[in-house]
Amino acid sequence: MNDTDKNYGEQKVKNQNRKMLKMVAFSLVIGGVIGTLLRNIDGGAVNLLTGNTENISLNPLTAILVAAAIFIGLIGFPLYSLRHVDELERRININATAISGLAVLGAFPVWLLLAIGGLLPHPTAYGMFLIAMASGFVSYLWLKFRP
Question: Is the pTM above the cut of 0.85?
Fold first, then answer.
């Protein structure tokens, strides 16, 4: 056997890496579509992070496209990905998701009570979404790379 021959294990790892790169590229495309569509809301004059969504107007077709892209990116893609990872990676992802859910369940009442006490602004959907995403990301990294 020479250096150019690939045994089964090496070829399998190469195929898994290629599949992972395709999945990451797909998620980048979905994120780019979402960002592009949201950037053009009301001519780019609206900032969605301010939480003032009552006065935003959006074309119904654009709303459907953005909602579908977000659903695919946040629900469909992770569920699809869990079918194509090994058992350890799946366990890490599920545990990180559970920790993220617990962070949201714990953060909302604390944030609300601090807002009632005048220490913080009232909770927003965007703030809770950011808490969920940040806690999921940090918990995944901790579970993946802890000693």
Answer: no
Which H helix or E strand runs over 16? helix 8-39
Number of domains in the chain: 2
For residue range 63-78, list pLDDT tens digits in order: 888 888 888 888 888 8
Residue type, 62: T
Same domain, 104 and 71: no
For residues 36 and 5, give the distance between their C-alpha atoms in angstroms, rounded to a whole number: 45
Do both 98 and 58 map to the same domain?
Answer: no
- Where residue 44 falls (left for φ over 0; alpha for ψ -120 to 50; beta otherwise) is left
81-92 pLDDT, tens digit per residue, is 878 778 888 899
Helix %, strand %, coil % of the chain (to 5):
75, 0, 25
- Closest among 146, 143, 130, 128 to 98, alpha carbons compared: 143
Q: How far apart are CA 85 and CA 77, in angstroms?
A: 13
Tell me the residue range of the domain where 141 lies.
87-147
